[in-house]
Design goal:
Layout (H helix, E strand, L loop, with lengths): L7 E5 L6 H7 L2 H8 L6 E5 L15 E4 L13 H14 L3 E4 L1 H9 L3 E4 L5 E9 L13 E7 L1 E5 L5 E5 L7 E4 L3 E4 L7 H11 L6 H11 L7 H9 L3
Parallel strand pairs: 1-2, 1-3, 3-4, 4-11
Antiparallel strand pairs: 5-8, 6-7, 6-9, 9-10, 10-11
Helix pairs in contact: 3-4, 5-6
Length: about 240
């Protein structure tokens, strides 16, 4: 760790943007790097969805698990070794951040349950209310507002997980695993223009017109992903 940040952040890539959006918006490790730039980090990507895993949890100072179009409960051959890597990082107290799929896979790896929610799609900027705020994370923000793109939700928490943000749509919107991980159902790394382009691209296939229209109305709402890097640095400063 250096200057309150992390020398190297390992990004465990579990998904990729659609090919026709990559030229305009880049890949998920790049988006994560932009979001975490206040920490003064170098980004080292690992394409775990292609079977590329770190040799050791000590290779990087912080691990970030990205979002993905896949479900954590699906039978992909890279999911069990990812869960095992999460458990090893947990046992060795190697700090970790989970985004969307990452939020869900950390919960599942540690005994939680993830399901497709009957509430349907959460798209665009969602507001989450901080709750049960732990002192280890510093001062609680008044609100956490992030781009969202999900149907699946963490519905049963692991024993040690601490709910720190919630909404009517997503009860377990952010979780704290003391001394180990911070996870968010939303996408702090998504620029609004990327979220908008993704909704437009999926209209009529993954998304109905009505769901896409609602998502587009929400995309332009004010988000505040910039409150999270400082929270991450505070959480793991020791």
């Amino acid at each position: 760790m250096q200057d309150g940040g992390f020398a190297v952040v390992g990004v465990l890539e579990t998904g990729r943007p659609p090919e026709n959006l990559v030229s305009a918006f880049g890949d998920y490790p790049g988006m994560v790097g932009d979001w975490l730039s206040p920490l003064g980090t170098a980004i080292r990507p690992y394409a775990v969805l292609d079977g590329e895993f770190p040799d050791s949890p000590a290779e990087c100072d912080l691990w970030v698990i990205t979002g993905s179009r896949f479900g954590v409960y699906e039978g992909h051959d890279w999911i069990p070794p990812l869960e095992e890597f999460i458990r090893i990082c947990h046992d060795r107290k190697r700090p970790m951040v989970g985004i969307c799929f990452g939020h869900q896979i950390i919960a599942q790896a540690l005994g939680g349950v993830v399901r497709k929610s009957p509430k349907g799609w959460g798209l665009g900027v969602h507001d989450y209310t901080p709750v049960n705020w732990p002192a280890a994370l510093g001062r609680a923000p008044e609100r956490i507002a992030l781009q969202s793109w999900h149907q699946d939700q963490v519905e049963e928490l692991p024993d040690e997980a601490w709910r720190i943000a919630t909404s009517e749509f997503c009860e377990n919107a952010a979780l704290w695993y003391p001394g180990f991980a911070l996870t968010f159902q939303g996408h702090p790394e998504f620029p609004a223009d990327y979220a908008r382009a993704l909704i437009d691209l999926r209209r009529g296939t993954t998304l109905s017109d009505a769901v896409a229209d609602e998502g587009l109305r929400n995309v332009a709402r004010e988000a505040n992903p910039e409150v999270l890097p400082e929270m991450i640095a505070t959480a793991f400063s020791g």
